[in-house]
Amino acid sequence: MNRIPTDPALEAQPNFESAAYIGWLNALVAGGISREDALENMADGWRFERQERIALWQEQMEEDARVLREQSERERAEKEALEQEEQREAEKKKPKINDFDTGSIVADVIIPRPSQYAIQKIKNMEYVELWYFSPDGCHEASITSRSTSDSDDAYGFAKVDGMVTLKTLASFKASHKALQDHDLSWCQFDLAKTSFLVHIEKNGWPEKHQQALALFFTLITNHEHRMRPRGEKTLLRYAGFVRREWHDRLTQNQGFNIGLFNNALYGSISDDVWEMERDESLKMQLSFIS
């Protein structure tokens, strides 16, 4: 249906005796009706047609109002949906904090916190030296953390869960003071392995791996050779080499049970330690003689 451009109710009745309508008027008169009746018929026809157009105009106005109302409701719904989506995105980005048990109290002993580098290694379930979990390593981490303000932190790219993200350089920068496991003192090793086991539990390492490592350290610290000459030194070398090998093999999908003590390997390492001490003793004697 063609649109009606203006309201027909506002139209004035035409002058049917004007030049525009004279042909129509003369045709009616020629048909045998009087001029007055012809003018009345023409007026009646215009009023009837005008009334029809008024009805169509009202329908057109109602349809326009309906379309406008639906468009307004649609735009309002789209705006509300957009605002809700923006609110959901804002909620996702808002920092969150976990709930706590109102009846729980802090533990009697708080394990010292290692460096961010060591924590990141643990989170990634990668090898990291036990020194970072020793009192010396944690003390070094505390000093480094205090000396570096947030505004001075440098950032670098790191791959986490298959995605590249920005992280502080401290999270993947090793300490130049870190010692290999076999270079630790027995006391450092004993304290560090306890902290290490606590942190792998906190970071959700598989129970199977946790139990194997706990047994591994128990066998080392309670080994009968510990009190023998070179006993602690040999056990430390065994622990350091085996734990590093365990991680390497896990990476290659060739993992072994670190909780099983290999006496043959321990014997070979013991021989190496004895030979190193013998060679060192000979060097000292030769140096003294010369």
Estimate the helix proportion, in percent: 55-70%
Mean pLDDT: 88
Structural class: mainly alpha
SSE arrangement, N to C: HHHHEEHHHH
Strand order of the largest sheet: 1-2
Number-wise, the strands total 2
Strand content: under 5%
Radius of gyration from the CA trace? 46 Å
Low-confidence stretches: none
Count of runs of 4 or more consecutive helical residues: 8
Sheet with the most strands, sense and barrel status? 2 strands, antiparallel
Coarse shape: rod-shaped
State the separation between the terminal residues, measured CA to CA.
120 Å
Keywords:
two-stranded antiparallel sheet, 2 strands, 290 residues, single chain, mainly alpha
Model description:
With 290 residues, the chain is mainly alpha-helical. A two-stranded antiparallel sheet has the order 1-2. Strand 1 and strand 2 form a beta hairpin. Helix 1 crosses helix 2, helix 5 runs antiparallel to helix 6 and helix 7 packs across helix 8. The longest helix is centred in the first third of the chain and has 59 residues.
